[in-house]
Specification:
Blueprint (H helix, E strand, L loop, with lengths): L1 H13 L1 H22 L13 H12 L8 E7 L9 H15 L4 E4 L15 E8 L9 H16 L3 E5 L13 H18 L2 H25 L7 H31 L4 H28 L7 H22 L1 H9 L9 H15 L5 H11 L1 H15 L8 E2 L7 H14 L7 E6 L3 H16 L4 E4 L3 E2 L5 E8 L6 H13 L3 H5 L2 E5 L1 H35 L3 H26 L4 H4 L7 E2 L2 H29 L4 H29 L6 H33 L8 H6 L8 H6 L7 H8 L4
Parallel strand pairs: 5-11
Antiparallel strand pairs: 1-3, 1-4, 2-3, 6-9, 6-10, 7-9, 8-9
């Protein structure tokens, strides 16, 4: 593998313009495809196979709404002692509704009336549902929204309190492209400058990563022609593509720069960097792709699309790192070794002077400290991450997110106060029978059973379909949609049909937003063990192939579980408990979005294995050259820790910048990934890994003999390549070290 990559790196370096023009053609082709094939993103989260989703599909057929337009609510509240159904307040409501109904872009609007069930028991609050002709909020004409807002303001002038709520009135939020993301890119550039001591070298990884993000985004936009895709998939692709694109390029450019500074020919250095560091990049990328692609086993389409879309950007990042990157290095040539900026040039010269004087690098000193205090480090690390994981025991999953719109929050508050917190989480019972009489009888019986349950606010009369073979019953819980009491109520309603279906011959199912949320959470909970088994199993097999070891892959997986627990604990503390919400701009919510933990597992596991490969492969390289286990750990850590640290800082800055995005789901994903990488890189990989390797000693590299014979030698460290490229001037001891790799 390393030999093939070495040749590919040299070819790209020599034929730089051919490679660069080739990628430019691909970029243009994808741009044309995106423009001509792109379709709008979907906002639905259809979950096939769940009871709630199957019931929704039947409801759409039996009780068609006649419109696909997006809806919103206009909530009116009269002053104390007055009502919205009588007097001047009622006239103000009718005037506002009439004006809205006549507005272009509005399909319909309902008038608050006691018979319609949209007026509170005290008559003070009424809700009008506004249906737009547009199917998505970003397609609604701004002039239409302005007329609705003016009608609401006119009602306020009559003494009413008015608020606009619902998806239609949520401000259009950008998934990417804000000031936070720009700050993340700036931090990334600063870190790269500090690593390379050269602005020219620092720009290269950032530029190639941007190309990769562009290719990934255009590919996904073109794929919307054949695949339904949520905008969150695009955001995840941008976030992950930028982070791994910079990191993968960083590892290769860093090795190349060091080799050129040591006097190696730039073309030879580019080939050798791609053959050695590029091999680690290839296998690290493979672990990320495995983790993301395995999201398809969950059985939730939109989550599988997100995983495959992000995996595509990682594949592109790897391909660019082993082809376009050496071509760009060919443009720079020997200038990669120095900087024209005097301060950076002097800094690089001082760093080289320290290395040549025999000064002990910081990474080596740190590894020695981890060796001396290995048991204390292991104990403190495991206990510390365990304490951080404690809040994860309170993790609750759901699909609702707090709104960032003050008007929407006011509308929800007014609705909850007037109708009860369960009004917005109405459960729908669907009864399907053989004819109107049988259906009505079954509906009446299930209604009576449900009325006897606890935590019921109201049960509406059954509504028959036009054909008479289906009935719909609306049940308003007394508690909010995210309450544990509402969750128990859903379970009780489903249990209440036991025996009734058999006696009546009717089929009874329950749906509604709360039911959908709970069914999704249940499906994800059931899929999570299978997903983890698939991901971790395949990754452990891959790492066994890479490191030719049993202990190292298992240690890597256990370390990941520790960092995952800590990141989930922080996620719950911030998103559910509201810690640091004023600083981070987040809002406390009773639940965490259902698919965030499983998405975190997939992405974080892939990235954790990235750092394991980059860091431990240098230890493996030293051990293969005949060094004792502790010496190999110390030397390998000293060689790889600087670049891994820089890569982790870049990851944290990129992911952390998304915490300040507009979308709440983007904030959650950015927070989870930033904390996960922070804990995994700086606690697990920088502390626990060297301590554990010191404890394991030779056992870290033990592999049964039969596996030695069966497993192919992938040469991820480039041992064979280094031996082939060894210069005649090498000392006898260096030759012995190189030959030791094949003993």
């Amino acid at each position: 593998m390393s030999t093939f990559l070495y040749r590919l790196g040299r070819f790209s370096y020599r034929r730089k313009w051919t490679v660069i023009i080739g990628w430019f053609v691909v970029l243009c082709a994808l741009g044309v495809a995106a423009v001509t094939l792109m379709k709008p993103f979907t906002s639905g989260t259809s979950i096939p196979g769940t009871e709630a989703q199957r019931t929704i599909d039947v409801l759409d057929k039996e009780f068609p709404s006649g419109t696909d337009g997006i809806t919103g609510q206009i909530v009116f509240r009269a002053p104390q002692g007055r009502t919205v159904t009588a007097g001047p307040e009622a006239e103000a409501v009718r005037t506002a509704v009439s004006r809205i109904a006549k507005t272009p872009g509005i399909e319909s609007v309902t008038t608050p009336a006691p018979t319609a069930g949209n007026v509170s028991p005290d008559g003070r609050t009424g809700i009008g549902q506004v249906t737009f002709t547009a199917e998505q909020s970003d397609k609604i004409d701004a002039a239409t929204v302005k007329v609705v807002e003016e009608a609401a303001e006119q009602a306020r002038s009559a003494g009413l309190t008015v608020a606009l709520g619902g998806r239609a009135f949520d401000p259009v939020q950008k998934a990417v492209g804000g000031a936070g993301e720009a700050a993340g890119v700036l931090v990334t550039l600063i870190v790269l400058v500090l690593v390379f001591r050269s602005l020219r070298a620092a720009i290269i990884p950032l530029a190639t990563a941007m190309v990769g993000v562009g290719l990934g985004v255009l590919s996904l936009l073109a794929l919307t022609h054949v695949v339904e895709m949520d905008s969150t998939a695009l955001m995840l692709a941008v976030m992950l593509g930028l982070a791994v694109g910079v990191d993968y390029a960083l590892f290769i450019v860093s090795r190349h720069q060091n080799q050129v500074r040591d006097g190696m020919d730039p073309e030879e250095s580019a080939g050798l960097a791609v053959g050695t560091a590029g091999s680690a990049v290839l296998f690290a990328g493979a672990t990320v792709v495995i983790a993301l692609a395995a999201l398809t086993v969950v059985g939730i389409p939109f989550l599988g699309v997100m995983g495959l879309g992000a995996a595509l950007t990682v594949v592109i990042a790897v391909l660019l790192a082993i082809t376009l990157l050496p071509a760009v290095l060919g443009l720079v040539g020997a200038r990669i070794a120095y900087s024209r900026i005097p301060a950076l040039r002097r800094s690089a010269e001082r760093s080289l002077a320290r290395e040549r004087s025999g000064a002990v690098p910081v990474g080596v000193r740190w590894a020695r400290l981890m060796d001396r205090r290995r048991w204390a480090v292991l104990l403190l690390g495991v206990v510390g991450l365990g304490v951080l994981a404690v809040p994860a025991a309170d993790l609750r999953l759901g699909l609702s997110l707090p709104s960032t719109n003050a008007q929407a929050e006011l509308a929800k508050k007014m609705t909850d106060e007037a109708f009860g917190p369960g009004y917005s989480g109405t459960l729908i019972i669907l009864v399907q029978g053989d004819g109107p009489r049988a259906t009505q009888s079954a509906a009446d019986q299930i209604s009576q059973r449900v009325k006897g349950l606890q935590d019921i606010a109201a049960v509406a009369p059954a509504r028959l379909s036009k054909a008479g073979d289906a009935a719909m019953i609306a049940v308003a819980p007394a508690s909010g949609p995210e309450s544990e009491r509402t969750e128990k109520l859903l379970t009780d309603i489903r249990h209440s049909r036991d025996g009734l279906e058999k006696s009546t011959g009717a089929e009874i199912n329950v749906t509604g937003s709360t039911a959908v949320s709970l069914d999704v959470a249940a499906k994800l909970s059931d899929a999570l063990p299978v997903y983890c088994l698939v991901v971790m199993g395949l990754a452990v097999l891959l790492l066994t192939l890479v490191f030719r070891s049993i202990a190292v892959p298992l240690k890597a997986a256990l370390g990941f579980l520790l960092s995952l627990g800590g990141s989930l604990g922080v996620l719950v503390a911030v998103l559910q408990w509201g810690w640091f919400s004023s600083v981070l701009g987040t809002q406390a919510s009773p639940t965490v979005i259902s698919f965030l933990p499983i998405l975190l597992v997939g992405i974080l596991f892939g990235l954790a294995m990235d750092y394991e490969v980059f860091l431990v492969s240098r230890m493996r390289e030293e051990y293969a050259h005949g060094r004792p286990p502790v010496t190999a750990m110390v030397n390998g850590f000293g060689l790889g820790s600087k670049v891994v640290t820089a890569a982790a800082v870049i990851m944290v800055s990129v992911f952390g910048s998304f915490i300040f995005a507009d979308m709440q789901i983007t904030k959650g994903m950015g927070l989870a990934l930033a904390v996960g990488v922070l804990l995994d890189a700086f606690v697990v990989r920088m502390c626990l890994v060297p301590a554990a390797m010191s404890v394991l000693g030779h056992a870290a590299w033990w592999l049964p003999r039969f596996l030695h014979r069966v497993l192919p030698h992938v040469d991820v460290e480039g041992e064979k390549l280094i031996r082939q490229q060894a210069r005649p001037a090498e000392s006898d001891q260096e030759k012995k070290d190189l030959l030791a790799t094949h003993r």
